[in-house]
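Interim report to the steering committee. The following record documents the input for 5'-nucleotidase domain-containing protein 1 (448 residues).
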Amino acid sequence: MIEGGRASFKQEAHPAKHTLIYESFTRYLVEHKDYDKDLLILTPASWDFCFKGLVVDLEDGNLVKLAEDGTVLRATHGTNNLRTEEIIKHYGSKREWKNFNSLNTSFTKSTKYYFYDNYFDLPGALLCGRVVDMLRKRGNEVNSDFWKDIVAAIDHNYNTSAFKEDAGWYFPSVKRDPGRYLQPCSESVKTWLRSMKSAGKVLLLITSSHSDYCRLICDHILGKDWEELFDIIITNALKPGFFSLVPQQRPFRTLVNDVEESEGLPSLDKPGWYSQGNWPHLHQLLKTMTGKPEPKVVYFGDSMRSDMFPASTFGKWETVMIVEEMEGEGVPRCDAAKTNEAQAEPQDKKGKFEDQGMKAPSAPSEQWGSYFVDAHKSGEGDEESQKLTWCCHSIHKYSTMAIPSVESIADLPLDYKFPRFCPNKPCTTGYYPRPPDSLLKKFQSQSS
């Protein structure tokens, strides 16, 4: 059985969409909160700062890149790099970030920090950095107050009624010209989904997007008949809360014209399209549909916080993480020898950013380095060592395997045996079709 999370055919980062998200947040701050208009002005080079896996420390305006043990590998104040001695001044000689244990064990949101782990909100990391720069330029104190304005900007653009009401800037722009922001997925992925359904697998789509926005996206990227691909569709799932245990779990609700019924369902007794919900009730339905006491679920996702960690920890599901950063480090998106389409896609996507002078979000950053591995030294004169990043370590811990895109596996037989991450095997084992360059170099140097 397969669980189709948003990432099984998710929209990759796209320059127009990236820019729209940034502008949607920023225009709110400028027009409603009296922030400087200069925030709206970006150069193509500015996008190098956008790097998945950053944590913004809301108490001091620093953004940090963490090692697997919570060591601060790199840091900025706003968008400006902190030198090694400045990092030690902030975080001590061991460079320990004080909130690491909280983030590492629960992934929950906090009033003290925010973790950027998916492309949909990633432009917010650049905005945070530039807002801190603006506050410093004004001579204002940098504290967590600025984050309240950022959250207000997010809510203004993304709240569940914004799509229907044409509120904010994000949804009206996408509705007006979806082809500018949404890229249809490949025929190989559609064929893959159909082949699983034909083989008797139960397919699910679980997304935190509201039903109206989900419909727009799927109509454009999967085609008007996309609902036929899935047995169960769950929108406004409010992940990771979807995986909460009693008593926090939310009931499923039916939808009428994209409006949730006020009365929650006591259980889930048949396939269909639902809103909100929880995995224990879904699990019971899957038992009924499959006739198995413990149905096997494979869950595809692209967010550690919303997908991998809760699905693995609470749902006990097999998890496949879509890690586009693998593409940025030499891993092919798919077997280019099989189709001309597969051959063209990666270069086309890369070109869209390069044509505008922008770094593709999945590529290594000049300012932040590799998503998987980074150099570390404790202080002046200390020998440099290579450390796994916290994001890389989390992939190995909470994912069954990692792939750069669904295209990379769509042409394989459904019974193909994939390598899995395993504690007693090298951490490079679970990457398909191969590990990213930085990980290969790290482990090759260790064995030489």
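Residues 1-8, 336-348 have pLDDT under 50 and may be disordered. The committee is asked to note this result when reviewing the revised timeline.
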